[in-house]
Amino acid sequence: MSINLEDPKKFKPLIGQAHMVAEELLRPNSRKYDNFDHEYPVELDMLRALIDGMEEGAGQAAGATGVGQSDTMKQDDKDGNKNGTNLSTMLSVIEMCWGDCGLLLTMPGQGLGNSAIAAVANEEQLKRFKGKWAAMAITEPEAGSDSAAIRTTAVKDGDHYILNGEKIYVTSGERADLVVVWANVDPSAGRAGIKSFVVERSNPGMKLDRLEHKLGIRASDTAAFILQDCKVHKDNLLGDPEVRTDKGFGGVMQTFDNTRPLVAGMALGVARAALDETRTLLEEAGFTIDYDKPTAHQPGAVAEFLELESDWEAAKLLTMQAAWMADNRKPNSVQASMGKAKAGRCGTDITLRCVKLAGAVGYSENSLLEKWSRDSKILDIFEGTQQIQLLIIARQLLGKSSSELK
Amino acid sequence: MAETLTKKSENGVKKTPAEKGMGAGLRFLNNLASSSTIDKLKLRKSTEKVVYHGSKNGFKAVGAVGRTFASKSKQDKPARQPKVGGTGAFDLTPTDEQQMLVEAFGEFATNELLPIATEASNNCVTPSEVLKHSTELGVTMIGVPEELGGAVEQRSAVTSVLISEALAKGDLGLAVAVLAPAAVSTAIGLWGDADQQSTYLPEFVGEDVPAAALAVIEPKPLFDPFKLDTKATKNADGGYTLNGVKSLVPRAAEAELFVIAAELDGKPAMFIVESKAGGIGVTPEPAMGIRPAATATLSLENVALEAGSLLGGADPEVYAEMVRLSRIAWGAVTAGTGRAALDYVIPYVNERKAFGEPISHRQAVAFTVSNIAIELDGIRLATLRAAALADQGKDFARESAIVRQLTQKYGMEIGSNAVQMLGGHGYTQEYPVERWYRDLRAAGLMEGVLLV
User: Fold this and answer.
1) Which CATH class, in words, describes the domain spanning A249-398?
2) Which of A60, A78, A229, A273 has the most CB atoms at less than 10 Å from its CB?
3) Chain A closest CA to B128's CA: distance in Å?
4) What pTM value is reported for the model?
5) pLDDT value, residue A38
């Protein structure tokens, strides 16, 4: 046992594989699917087969399915230190998003709904939904960050629930097999009534309304659904069907403690792509990056690069800390939000400033720098905005409730 | 139990690694218990203050009349401590030994540094009782190999980071005063040859540890530690002559030993300099912060050194390693003082009311607290990563540069935000945050002084 903050030795092969996939399969298709809004990247089907193989081989997930309750976590040390799937998944997400974040987001079988299922589904459900691609539908036109305010209802009707409402910003909503829908079974109970339901994409009660045209991550489809008398079997409710005022919503929110490090990992991947490219451009322009020499003695571009690289490092280490804590079953809500907040804001800061450093080369579509600075913005918004992360951190540090610190 | 373990080792009975770790940790705890935690510290006598303030206002004093350093034992080759292996797993858990040290030094910082910090800062002096107690705790033994009487089985930059952080949580300026001699013992432990180690290191593991300082920074804007104005020239007899000026040298007036950075043949190098070598002048140089460290300007005029005074064989890699380890150390104290600031700000903003409710109910305040926590943890993790790489014998140039960057940018920001959260209160000396503001500014610009 000793303090060590390197990428775990045993994950090196997985990280290497993910990087290779990113370099050989994602990056070459980056520009193509950025231009073809809403077109399914057929190359991904091959990738899905490849990743399934990788997961079986390495016992570790490259996408979002791995996080949460996992019994495959192995102990590294006799003293009980664990490096498990939260950390390995987050590290491979960095590599994949170094390749292309939009393509990772639309990776078949790797939706955020899969994380929710992995985190809270029972044995029977896990078996039934295995191998399916699950999207996540939380946000509504009138409820974004305030996810407790969702208006979609689920009314019990015999063995079924009848869902009614409207869902937007459903990543991979068009392409997924399943959609995990948040709905309230008892609006009078407030947030305690919020439950998640697995809805088959083919369910006639869930109609695709439209696909969004976006600033970035265009390879990934973002769907809006209308749920109209959508009939869902009660066995598709995830978690406890009872409305408990003491816990309930908190349990739903806990999923985020595991998934935030992944979204932070996405921001880290995109930002590192920009940093790597910028370093190459700077070196080609005759600049050398000297780590020992005081920045005041180095060219402004190099000094700025070092500043960006340092922020990236802080964000990565914060995120690794959060994932490591999840692997070791330590409460990590504050750390998960710290990683997400830092990685989210650094993601946009780094990618935008790399465009500036590269000038016309960075701004033109001839390089991917401009694309990465469009892609990165969503990562400071979804899975909890910057401001929501700061609220979560502050409430916990200050011991404040959501009614005190709004 | 400590006795049993000691006896065992004297009898040459092989201990398990766990027992060894436990033994070293217990040694510290024993030192802590037997020293004067209970004896309340009396502040430095006024006479001593007068001496300092007198000198502050004018004259330059010669260096302290130092002891005679002489080789105590014959070593064939310098003692070098093994690098840490590890499992290659990501882990943020300190070892039991590290945890014990953190607790011992943390208690010392809370009970003995924090309560006297304001007065020590105003008087530009660290009470001798505090310094004595810190050496009893073994602060200078951390970097000394065990075979030369050092405290821990393996020298560890991570352990030094954790101790520095714990001390600076009490007070950064006092931590610098306490840690200054440890920088010298660590430097000689890491890079000294057999003669240098046997001559100097025994003094740092004894009862009466000398004041000592690692002098790198010079009084010029945009100082670059790799381009030194202080010059060393080689003499015909194989010795060296030093000329130049060093700035912000901690406890220079009382220091008996220095490690001084000077350029030799166009490359930066380090020299071991005893204060009684002629030609050393000390002028008090009180600064914005870290005032308990009694910083001073060191002037070197034709200081004649023997051939054996060159430390690390003028190897540029050794010198670069020193600069990097020093920057990591400043990251560690920033993490400690930053934590003190966060811990102070949280109850303040919860208790302070404006417009009928605690100011922490406002996002502008609450988000500032969140951001202090985020950037503080970032500095801390980056510092630990760099130190762990150093312990593993891997390259850590990039990581130490990152520590430097984060310390520069966010250490100061944390200090500034802490004052801002207290508003007018924060600006007065009734509250400690204005001192942290001043001290944290040092962390991002200092070179040398501390070493992990």
Assistant:
1) mainly alpha
2) A273
3) 34
4) 0.90
5) 78
